[in-house]
Amino acid sequence: MSPDVDLTLPERGRRRLMNLDSRLFEFAAGRNWPAAEPVLPRLSRGANHGVLWFATAAAMAASRTPRSRRAAARGLASLALASLTVNTLGKRSVRRTRPALDPVPLARRLKHRPVTTSFPSGHAASAVAFAAGVALESPAWGAAVAPVAWSVALSRVYTGVHFPSDVLAGAALGAGAAFAVRGLVPTRAQVVPPARPRADVPALPDGEGLVMVANTASGTAERVRALHDGLPLAEIVECEPDYVRAELEKAAARATVLGVCGGDGTVNAAAEIALRHGVPLAVLPGGTLNHFAYDLGVEGARDLTRAVRQGEAVRVDAGRFTSDGREGVFVNACSLGVYPELVRERERWSKRIGGWPAGVLGALRVLRADRHPLEAEFGGRARPLWLLFVGNGTYHRMGLAPGRRTDLADGRFDVRLVHGGRRPALRLLAAAVAGPLTRSPAHAAVQVGRLHLSGVAPGTLLAYDGEVTEVEGEVTVEKLPEALTVYRPLPGN
User: Rounded to two decimals, what is the model's pTM?
Assistant: First the structure.
């Protein structure tokens, strides 16, 4: 009588699947795998504790493109979720023993056999989670990583530490983790800035009529070359920071389209000049942060080239502040309080130690200094403030630090305040953690169309798009709705 006769239907099905799994494992063990012996065991060991994927993410981030950095971060987040799920639920739910090593040749076996249960494969889950997370953000990087991830998953059967079903279950779990992360944090492609209000601008198939002024201090040479390859008749003017504004003025007087390549401070100067001359602006990101260009959806020369060739552009808001005869335009944000002091400290040290270290050092020096909060009248009440941040458009990332804007023509300022009191560092940290919609004695956030401050002390610093000036008395911040025309690729075209 067959041993399966007394078993229930689910039990018989389970036993047959396990028998099939064992036969597939033995088939794989008995196969000759040309060129696999020097590769797969090393890959399997290299993926221990995610070392291979952390190294891959570091290499991707080193490419210095925004999409690569986002893809690396998304891959690691997906890996973390997959590993957490495997170790807390997967391994504890199914107590399956590892395969017997008898059919596996000695040359394939790992020196240190895992001691955890077999189902599911953590290596396969991590590999597929990382590759899928990367691919969801950057298909090109995903195509490069996928063969390595597939090889790592395959190596677990090849080296005899997992059954094929362990690997398939781990791979499914890893893919699920990547899509779960995407559900929590949408990819850049999912959150496309609205293609409105569209602007009527000239299409320049070869770039003739575009005059691009590039700030050489921002390390723009590579991006400018890429732009020139796509728009060979565009005029490129490269200059040192001290000459950028003068060159932008001259370019605006003769250009059909004013182009700028540099950081946010350089873009600010170009925006102000483009507004004054009434010419459309083409922004090629070339600095460290590039908030304005990235929020537009322009991440590099390819995006800008496409927009200029096809005549794709939108109108966006600008902000303007006025105080005691001084005025300025901003496309990202302006702020008072500790942030302008941080900007000055960062500029003081950046040429010696680099931008990011200078930012960290500046924050430490500003927050540790003995100072009094800014005193200003806001909303009819005199308030002590550690920070007043005014964003040009609504930011959709939680926290005090500005994130991404998906609509640059919403007619609103995103205002965030950190009220004065003891220990500014703790108050700023609390505001960053709690998010912009929180109301508390320490911080608050509102969206308004206009802002007026009075009673601002002489010599108070105001930062706008990375530039710093002094204000006093009354400070008014108002919107210039849809005032600036900017080239950007439009979805669906």
Answer: 0.71
